[in-house]
Structures are given as structure tokens and as C-alpha cells.
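Recap from last week: sequence in, structure out.
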Amino acid sequence: MQIISSIQEIQQRMLQLRAEGKTIGFVPTMGFLHEGHMTLLQQARQENDIVVLSVFVNPLQFGPNEDFDRYPRDIERDEQLARETGADYLFYPSTEEMYPAPMTTKVTVTSRTDVLCGAKRPGHFDGVAAVLLKLFNIVMPHRAYFGLKDAQQVAVVQGVISDYNIPVTLVPVATVREADGLAKSSRNVYLSERERAQAPAIYQGLQLARQAAEQGERCPEALTALVRDHIVSHTEGEMDYIQLYSYPELESVSELAGTFIIAVAVKFARARLIDNIILTVE
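Predicted C-alpha cells:
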């Protein structure tokens, strides 16, 4: 695995690989890798000749009350995991390399951002879109891999790719789960033993909604009530939100048809957990 921190160097290398007819799979991250990232890398490894992992903590997507400097970093561990999972290149630029001068343009995401987690993080997805536009131009991948645990981010990225005609295929990858269904997350370590035993109820509630939809339920409020009631009665966590929208548009629906997402966020004492399911009905 080669570690590259220069934009010019990795661009030249990617152009050379593309000229040789190699397909490039790309996994953009902010580092502090976990099993979810490994799953993205493994799928990219299976589907491409070359796999590129980027590690860059992007300051543009941090709000004024979010501490960019406290974001967890462990580049030595990231290097080891990337190497073990079969990445060919680790792109690890500095902030100065990515933003050598103040930006003269601004990317604004105008839809899909004012619901779910984005509702409480104004400007967050503008920063995500801006850095991804840069990374897609730097790495020039054929495919880019994103986890569906953050399905809102996937929807926003798909919009950016479509709006700007970026020649990359977005590959959404299913959420990685523990044996009991809990979505894997670095935040799970902050759960107490009691909370950890309760946390699988989040996915159980989502599965109840899935079953009801498959059996013909078409009322959005009925499905979200199923999820809420199960989580409230089986955990001591505080419901942050339980919402249902069309997907990937993330627009309100009065009756279920086509593809939609049910997403939930639950606050425990020291961890806020998110999860979702995406369903398609006629």
C-alpha cells in the first residue's frame, strides 16, 4: 500500500492507472476506521482493480459548536487496517494541502438536508458536498462506496453526483450489524451494560415496521408509531426523532408508494444512536 499526501502526486498516479484501463474504487473517510469502513473497503476490493482510501478530517463540515480539534484521530491504526483490508493507496492530505487558500466558491445543498440529522446541523452537508467534489476530482474513481447507516449522506451525495454529472457510480453498502441487530458504531462503546442490552430494540422496532409494510400497511403514521412504541417500551433511551420520508428525495409522503426510509435516532446517557431501513412498496 502506498501512502500519498500530495494532491498532484495522487492525481498523476490515478491518471496513469486510468490510462492503463484500471478501474478505481474509492472509499472516502475521516479516519478512525471501524468495521463499517472495512466492509466498504472489502466490497471495493472485490469490484475494482485499484482501491483508494482517503483519510481527511474535513473542517468545512464542522459547525461552530462542533469541535474539529477533538475529532478522534489514529492514523497509525488506520494505516494498519487499510493495509490489512487490501487498499492499494491511502490518500492522507493535510488541511493545508486540501485548502491552501480560502475557498472562492461555496457549495450549497438545497434539498435533502433539513430533515433527520441534518435538521440540527445547518451547513454540515454543504461541507460534505464541497470536500467530495474536491476528492472526486482528485482521485477520479469509477466507483465510490458509502455506508447506508448514514442514508441521508448517501442521498445528498447521489444528488451531488447527479447535479454535477460526475462520472462516478455511487455504491451504497448495507449497514453492518452486531449479531443481535444493533448497527455497528464507534459510539456503542459509550453504552452502559444495561443500555447495550436494550439497544437492539431500535432495529427490532424498524423490523416491525418492515413487516407491517410488507403485509400491506400504507399509513406513514402507523409505521412510525410501531417503531416509537417498541423503542419507548423496551429502552430507557430518549427518542430524538422517528421519521419517514421518500428516498432518496427525503420528502414527506401522505401514503406509502415507491421507495421510502424510516429513520430513527435515540439518545442514551452518553451515546446517540441512529439507524434506518429503506423499503420499496407498490
